[in-house]
Design a protein that fits this description.
- The protein is 36% helix and 25% strand.
- The chain is built from 19 helices and 21 strands.
- 34% of the residues are buried.
- The chain is an alpha/beta fold.
- It folds into three domains: 6-140, no CATH class; 155-336, Beta-Lactamase; 344-561, P-loop containing nucleotide triphosphate hydrolases (Rossmann fold).
- Helix 3 packs antiparallel against helix 4, helix 8 (177-197) packs across helix 10 and helix 16 (428-440) packs parallel to helix 17.
- The longest helix is centred in the N-terminal third of the chain and has 24 residues, at 47-70.
Length: 566
Amino acid sequence: MREGSLKVYRNLSPRMTLSEFENALDDPPSPGSLCFFSGKKNFLLTWDQFLVMQQVCRDLRLCLDLLSKKAKDCAFARGVCSSMNLDWIALLGEVQSGVLHKKGIRCRICGICRELSGIRSLTLSGHELSFAFRPQLIPFGLVSLGAPEYLVPPYSVYILMRSGRIVYFPVMCSLSVRDRINVFRLIRKVRRHEQRNLKPPFSIELGKVIEERRSILQGFSKLSEPAEIFALYASVGLADILTLLIDDNVGEFYIDSPRSFAYIDHRELGRCESSIWVGRGVVERLLAFSACSNRRASDYLHPSIKASIKTDEFHARVSIDTPPLSFEGASIDIRKFFRNPTDISTLIRNKTVTPEAVSYLLMRLRAGSSFSIYGESGSGKTTLAIALDLETPQHWRKYSVESDIAENITQRHLGKHQVRLLAATGSAEASKRRKEVLDSLLHKSPDYVFFGEVLSESDSHALFQILASGIRCIHTVHAPSGEGLLRRFAYQHHIPLVSLSDLGVLVQMRRFDTGGNFTRRVVRISELVRDDLLVEMPLLRDLFLWNPGSSQLEPTPAYREMSIPA
């Protein structure tokens, strides 16, 4: 495809009829172009799709010309000619149904069925063509796409601007129409194989379904990796959001209601609109897979589901609110965990934190300090926590303790000693079990603990018990400020004031809205002023503070005067 090549056509009716597409044939696009049909129903075709559609429509016109000559004496011919205003795929189905009908004496006299049966396009079913021509929606007001920003096979991802907002726009360019039809036929073969051979009990967890179908699919045909991934997720009804699931640059995406466009938080670009239309079917499938993973269905009394879904292609936390809680239909938040997490050098490069602040944090990390990373939801707390955790020495024995979903990554492939524990929250029984897991760390001799998120009063008590025993720890917690964090621990979770001095380094993250796009920054690094006779709330000494004038994290005089232990 040529860079920036976009041919725009005006499509006036809600459907793409044969006559309207024939108008486009009078002004064909240049080879390699993308074709945008604008109107009440806007969709995009690749050059390959345009060529196949062109051939099908020419064959349909030939069929109609032949049928019009027989319309007076043939009921089949009259029926097809009266269906001219159907969309072209439906019209093709009408012709095919007539060709395949039971032949009678009138057909032997007419002969039109025999004449049509030799036309090549009639060998393609409407279901195959509907799958191969799955519409890709495009925002209004675009006249050029430019060059693709990057590739997520089988998609090319374009980054566009529309009304001052960034638009994430993936286009499937590397799979031809023939490839897609082949994928459709293979999916049908996989489903027929399952119907014959799959015996209950069996799991419908997405990860297990994908792996089972992968093995079946590989037994039928050798596909390229992009085609295989597309086939697998199309087989479970998630092809429409496949790009969002497998693109490592998409950190989180949101669906406010069925039949709406998704919008995303991009790893590099922040908040973006998208051209990905999410229908009711995709929402229902996400709800079903989440309910299976969570071992609990959504119902009137329990309209919210929080689940972890993991496959070889992605790992995500899915949060769904359904009616009556969400009265416009199910709303969905899917947060993905990066297979290649953001490291410290990347955080410096994207200006999340300054090099000088990183030097201080790493020195405190290796000196044995604990870290409390706090801020609002979505501010990048976990990203920074994982980046710091990756910087720990290889010989340290580390435990990672998290709640319902493991956000930290396994580090064994990096040569590090790490044990990952998943201790759920929610019910009284789960909270009790979580406390037991946390208390047991005192007897396991860890050098460092990645605590994940402090959620409850029992979590806070377990945290300070770990800190009081001399175990170093890094954790995240929601709080609007450092002082607010201390008040939460002291007054809501009833932590003794004297114990607060065990917290170590406090790091505040904040999310900034910059012209509709979000950036995440470290805005404050501080430590507690130690006082063994503490009777009031401890004070914080700021070492780095955000300067709104320069939009930079700057060291304070207290940092310049301090000495960091070796």
